[in-house]
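Extended Data, panel c. Modelled sequence:
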Amino acid sequence: MPSFGDPRAEVLIIGLAPAALGGNRTGRMFTGDSSGDWLIKASYELKFANRQTSDHRDDGLVLSNVYITSVIRCAPPDNTPLRSEIENCSKYLLKELRVLKSVRIVLTLGLIAFNTYRRVCQLEPAVFRHGKTYSINKNNTLVASYHPSRQNTNTGRLTWNMWISIFRTVRMLLMSGSN
């Protein structure tokens, strides 16, 4: 499944994988499922998207200053990717990172995205903590968030206030011009 968004984006969002009932069905990641609903609504509220919903690939959604990708390019069985799947798909993430020259802020959704990003970029290990920002270098910042999966949102592990706060942090980092 291909990534999508603004190729000149300063914000890169990395999720886990296209959802079986979302991306696999609609042809675009974070589209047509509850995780996508949360992502697109927050993007809209912080002016990264032109609409607050996305239910199919040709619905008119346009992202501004945001590019969305994932660690895995297909829906893993039981939503649990094998290490070999992560390794096989990491080359695509690494190629995207090389092409996306304007990225200053990387928002990782979940522990697997966080660890995979740090590994492919050969960054020092760090402890994942929702809402924490990590300086990558003088120009780049990593922001960690829980994934907006139903498992996290239905249990209250990730609330809407926690989620929108992540996007406000990203917007603030962009506006400040310094990370």
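The longest strand covers residues 140-145. This feature is highlighted in the accompanying rendering.
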